[in-house]
Inverse folding.
C-alpha cells in the first residue's frame, strides 16, 4: 500500500470540501455521487412531463394541453428518460461508485477520463434539453425521418447531444473494462467477481461497440443537411428506413445497456438478503454476456411493419427469440437462489423481488412481440409502450432504486428509515403495475401509442393508468425524502449493515479517499455465506 | 361465431383473426404458466425461508445444478422455436396477397387518408366488398404514417417515395375503425378513418356513384363533398375556428398578410396557387405544412373547391 499524505484516511465526503473540489475531483466516488444527483434530477424532470401528459389523458378531450404541447411533452419525457436517465443511469452512478470497491481497487483505471465523461454528460444533457425546448421539437425520442427532419435544426442538435452523451457512455464503458482487466485485487479471479461486475462488463462491451453508430448517424445527417445529399430525406431521394436502421442499430443494444446493469443489482441484493450464493453463478454471468452479444443482431424487430423484406423480418424474429433464453435463465436462477435461504424482506429486497415480478412480465411481453403474426397487430400500440416500461422503469429503475437503498449506507454513511423505505417500495410496486398493466390490455385492444385523442372505450384504462401514476409518484417521492432525510436524522451506518460478502462492505461507510486502508486479499467467491449448523 | 371483442382482443372481422388470435391466446397461456410458476415459487420460498431471528443463516448453499439449469435453458428454447414457426407461418400468409385480389391505392398525408380505386373513384373512407381479398398499395405524400385496422389484425407503415402493401379479406359487413399508428405530428391522433365492408351488390352500386362524384351536382355541391373526401377538413374549418390552416369561412375576398411576400387578396388565383403550390405564399401565423395537390386534384375539382369556398361567407 502506497503511503498517502495525511488526511487521506478520512472519508471521501470530508476530504477537501467545497464545491470547486467536487467539480475537479477525480475520485470515482464523488463522480458517482454527482452522476447520481444529476440523474435523479433528470428522472424527476422526465417524470414530471409524464405526469402532466398522463393527467391530460384523463379524458379524450382537451384537459389543459394542446395536441402540440402533448407531443412536445412525450418527446421531452422520452428523450430525458432514455438518453439522460436509464441509459447512463446505473453504470454512471452506481457503477462508478461501486465497481472499484467491489474489485478492491483504489479508483478506476483512468480517473481523469472518468471526470471527462461526467462533463460530456452534462454538456450533452444541456444541448439535448435546449434543442427540444428552444426548437419546440416534438419528433418523439425515436426521431423517425422524414418527420424529424422537418424539425431542423432541433434534430441536428439532438444528434449533437446524442454524440456527446454517446462519448460519455463509450468512455465510461472503456474505463470499466480496462479497470476490470487490470486492477482486480490479489486473488480476485474473474469467477470471484460479483455478478454486478459481470453485468458492468457486458454493458461496457455494448457501450463501446454500439454507441459509435450515433456518431456515424450524426455525420450522415450533417452531410445531408449541408451538402443536400439525399440520405434519409425522401424529398432528396434518401431513404427514411435507413435512419430507422441506424437508430435501432444503436438503440436496441441500448435497451440492453439499460437493463443488464439492473440484472447485476438484482443478483447482489438477492444474494445479500437471502444469505445465499447465487444459484448457477456462471450461468448468470454468461447470460449477461450472451445478451450483450445477441443484442447486436436483433434491431430489425423494431421494423416488422416498417417495410423490411419478409426474409429480413423472419431472420430478425428468429434471432430475437434467442434473447429470451438468457433472460429466462436469470429469472429461474434468482428464484432458485431463494430456496433454503434466510430471506430478509428489507427495503432493497422488496425492490429486488418487485424487479423479478416486473421483469418477468417485461420479458414475457417482449417474447410475444417477436411472434411475427402477432406483432403486426401489436406494433406501435400501448402494448409496446407498456412492454418497454416494464423493462426500463419496472425492471431497470426499480433495480436502480433498490441499488440506491442497498448501497446508500456505503455511499453516505447513513441509514435511512426502514419502515418508510418499505412503505415506499410497496407504493412503487402497486403504482407501477396499476399504471402499466392496463396499458397492455388497452394496446392489444388496438389503442395506438402517442395519441392525444382516443376512443371513448379506452377512457377507463387511461384513468386507471393515471391513478396508478399518482400512487407511483407518491411512492417515489416518499423514497426520495426518506433517503435525503437520512442525512439529518439517519443513524450512523456500520461498515457492513446487511452482512454481505462482497468487497465494498469491507471498506468503511463511507469509504476513505482511496477506498481501502490496506489492499484486500481475496480468498473466496463473492457470496461465500455460511450455513446453519445442523 | 362470436365476433365481439374479448378481454384482450378487439372485435373480429377478417380472416387474419384466425391466424393472430389463436397465436395470441396460445402465448397468453404459456405466459400465464411461466408467470405464475415464478411468482408462486418466489412467494413460497419467501414465506418458507423468511428470516425469523437476526442471526439466522441459509440452511444450505447450493451453488449450481447442471441438469436443472440445462433444463430451464432447453425447455424455453424449444418453446420459443415453436413460437417462431407459428409466427412466421402466419406472417407470410398475412404478407402475400392471394391471386385474384382487388387493389385499392391508399395515400396518407397529414392528417387524412385517401383511397383511389382503379375506376377512378376517390374516397376518404375505404369501401370494400365482403369475402373478397383486397390488396392496399400504400404510400405517403409527406411523412411516415401507418395504416392499422384493429378488427382485421393488420397494419403496415406508409412511406413517402415507396409503395408498401397489405392485404385482407373481410369476413362480415360493418364499419371498422382505421387508425394511424406511426407518429406524424400535431393531429396524429385524429388521423382516423374507417373501412366500410358491404355486400358485393352494394359495393358495385357504390363504386358506380363514387367513380363520378360530380355527376348531376353544381360545382358548389361537388366542392362541399370534396372538402371532406379530399381531407381538407383535417386542417381547415368551415365555421371560422382556427386550426392548422385558416378557416374557409369568410376567406374569399379577404386581404391577408404573407410577411415577406406582402399582402395578398384571396381570390380564385391565390386559392388555386395555394392548393397546387402551397408554400408559394403562406399567410403569417401559419406553418408551411400543407401537402401539395398538384397532380392530385383535377381542374374540375379545383374549380369546385373554389366555388365552395366562395359560398362560405
Amino acid at each position: 500500500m502506497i503511503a498517502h499524505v495525511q488526511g487521506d484516511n478520512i472519508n471521501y465526503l470530508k476530504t477537501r470540501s467545497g464545491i470547486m473540489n467536487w467539480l475537479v475531483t477525480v475520485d470515482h466516488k464523488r463522480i458517482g455521487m454527482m452522476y447520481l444527483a444529476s440523474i435523479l434530477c433528470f428522472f424527476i424532470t422526465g417524470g414530471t412531463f409524464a405526469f402532466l401528459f398522463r393527467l391530460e389523458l384523463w379524458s379524450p378531450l382537451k384537459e389543459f394541453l394542446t395536441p402540440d404541447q402533448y407531443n412536445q411533452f412525450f418527446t421531452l419525457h422520452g428523450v430525458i428518460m432514455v438518453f439522460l436517465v436509464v441509459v447512463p443511469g446505473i453504470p454512471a452512478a452506481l457503477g462508478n461508485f461501486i465497481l472499484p470497491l467491489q474489485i478492491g481497487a483504489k479508483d478506476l483505471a483512468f480517473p481523469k477520463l472518468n471526470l471527462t465523461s461526467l462533463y460530456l454528460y452534462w454538456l450533452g444533457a444541456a444541448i439535448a434539453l435546449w434543442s427540444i425546448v428552444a426548437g419546440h421539437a416534438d419528433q418523439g425520442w425515436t426521431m423517425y425521418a422524414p418527420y424529424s427532419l422537418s424539425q431542423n435544426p432541433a434534430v441536428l442538435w439532438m444528434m449533437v447531444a446524442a454524440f456527446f452523451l454517446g462519448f460519455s457512455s463509450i468512455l465510461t464503458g472503456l474505463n470499466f473494462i480496462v479497470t476490470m482487466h487490470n486492477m482486480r485485487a490479489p486473488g480476485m479471479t474473474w469467477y470471484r467477481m460479483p455478478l454486478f461486475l459481470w453485468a458492468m462488463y457486458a454493458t461496457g462491451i455494448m457501450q463501446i461497440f454500439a454507441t459509435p453508430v450515433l456518431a456515424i448517424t450524426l455525420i450522415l445527417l450533417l452531410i445531408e443537411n449541408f451538402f443536400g445529399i439525399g440520405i434519409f430525406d425522401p424529398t432528396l431521394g434518401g431513404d427514411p428506413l435507413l435512419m430507422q436502421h441506424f437508430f435501432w442499430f444503436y438503440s436496441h443494444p441500448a435497451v440492453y445497456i439499460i437493463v443488464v446493469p439492473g440484472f447485476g443489482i438484482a443478483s447482489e441484493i438477492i444474494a445479500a438478503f437471502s444469505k445465499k450464493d447465487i444459484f448457477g453463478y456462471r450461468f448468470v454471468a454468461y447470460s449477461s454476456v450472451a445478451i450483450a452479444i445477441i443484442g447486436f443482431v436483433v434491431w430489425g424487430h423494431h421494423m416488422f411493419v416498417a417495410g423490411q423484406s419478409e426474409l429480413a423480418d423472419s431472420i430478425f424474429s428468429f434471432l430475437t427469440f434467442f434473447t429470451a433464453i438468457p433472460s429466462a435463465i436469470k429469472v429461474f436462477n434468482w428464484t432458485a437462489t431463494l430456496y433454503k435461504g434466510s430471506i430478509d424482506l428489507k427495503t432493497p429486497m422488496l425492490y429486488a423481488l418487485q424487479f423479478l415480478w416486473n421483469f418477468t412480465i417485461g420479458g414475457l411481453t417482449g417474447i410475444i412481440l417477436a411472434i411475427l403474426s402477432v406483432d403486426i397487430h401489436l406494433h406501435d400500440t400501448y402494448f409496446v409502450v407498456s412492454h418497454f416500461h416494464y423493462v426500463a422503469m419496472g425492471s431497470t429503475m426499480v433495480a436502480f432504486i433498490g441499488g440506491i437503498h442497498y448501497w446508500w449506507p456505503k455511499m453516505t454513511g447513513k441509514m435511512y428509515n426502514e419502515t418508510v423505505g418499505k412503505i415506499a417500495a410497496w407504493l412503487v410496486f402497486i403504482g407501477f403495475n396499476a399504471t402499466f398493466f392496463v396499458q397492455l390490455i388497452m394496446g392489444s385492444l388496438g389503442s395506438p401509442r402517442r395519441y392525444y385523442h382516443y376512443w371513448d372505450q379506452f377512457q377507463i384504462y387511461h384513468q386507471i393508468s393515471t391513478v396508478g401514476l399518482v400512487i407511483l409518484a407518491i411512492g417515489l417521492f416518499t423514497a426520495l425524502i426518506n433517503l435525503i432525510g437520512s442525512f439529518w436524522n439517519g443513524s450512523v451506518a456500520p461498515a457492513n449493515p446487511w452482512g454481505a460478502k462482497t468487497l465494498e462492505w469491507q471498506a468503511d461507510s463511507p469509504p476513505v479517499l482511496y477506498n481501502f486502508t490496506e489492499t484486500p486479499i481475496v480468498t473466496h467467491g463473492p457470496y461465500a455465506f455460511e450455513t446453519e449448523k445442523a | 361465431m362470436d365476433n365481439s371483442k374479448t378481454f384482450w382482443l378487439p372485435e373480429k372481422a377478417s380472416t387474419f383473426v384466425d391466424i393472430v388470435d389463436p397465436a395470441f391466446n396460445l402465448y397468453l397461456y404459456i405466459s400465464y404458466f411461466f408467470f405464475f410458476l415464478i411468482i408462486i415459487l418466489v412467494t413460497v420460498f419467501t414465506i418458507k425461508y423468511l428470516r425469523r431471528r437476526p442471526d439466522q443463516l441459509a440452511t444450505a448453499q447450493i451453488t449450481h445444478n447442471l441438469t436443472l439449469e440445462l433444463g430451464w435453458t432447453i425447455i424455453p428454447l424449444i418453446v420459443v422455436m415453436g413460437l417462431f414457426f407459428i409466427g412466421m407461418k402466419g406472417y407470410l400468409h398475412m404478407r402475400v396477397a392471394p391471386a385474384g385480389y382487388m387493389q385499392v391505392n391508399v395515400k396518407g398525408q397529414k392528417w387524412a387518408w385517401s383511397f383511389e380505386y382503379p375506376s377512378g373513384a376517390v374516397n376518404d373512407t375505404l369501401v370494400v366488398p365482403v369475402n373478397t381479398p383486397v390488396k392496399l398499395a400504400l404510400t405517403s405524400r409527406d411523412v411516415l404514417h401507418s395504416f392499422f385496422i384493429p378488427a382485421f389484425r393488420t397494419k403496415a407503415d406508409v412511406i413517402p417515395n415507396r409503395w408498401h402493401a397489405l392485404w385482407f379479406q373481410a369476413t362480415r359487413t360493418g364499419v371498422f375503425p382505421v387508425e394511424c399508428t406511426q407518429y406524424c405530428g400535431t393531429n396524429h391522433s385524429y388521423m382516423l378513418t374507417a373501412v366500410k365492408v358491404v355486400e358485393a351488390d352494394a359495393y358495385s352500386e357504390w363504386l358506380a356513384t363514387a367513380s363520378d362524384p360530380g355527376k348531376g351536382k353544381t360545382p358548389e355541391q361537388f366542392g362541399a363533398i370534396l372538402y371532406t373526401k379530399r381531407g381538407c377538413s383535417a386542417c381547415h374549418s368551415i365555421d371560422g375556428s382556427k386550426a392548422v390552416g385558416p378557416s374557409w369561412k369568410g376567406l374569399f375576398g379577404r386581404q391577408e398578410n404573407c410577411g415577406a411576400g406582402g399582402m395578398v387578396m384571396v381570390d380564385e388565383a391565390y386559392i388555386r396557387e395555394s392548393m397546387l403550390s402551397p408554400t408559394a405564399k403562406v399567410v403569417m401565423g401559419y406553418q408551411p405544412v400543407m401537402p401539395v395537390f398538384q397532380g392530385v386534384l383535377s381542374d374540375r375539382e379545383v374549380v369546385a373547391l373554389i366555388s365552395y369556398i366562395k359560398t362560405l361567407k
Notes: DSSP finds six helices and twelve strands in chain B. The first helix of chain B runs from residue 17 to 48. The radius of gyration of chain B is 28 Å.
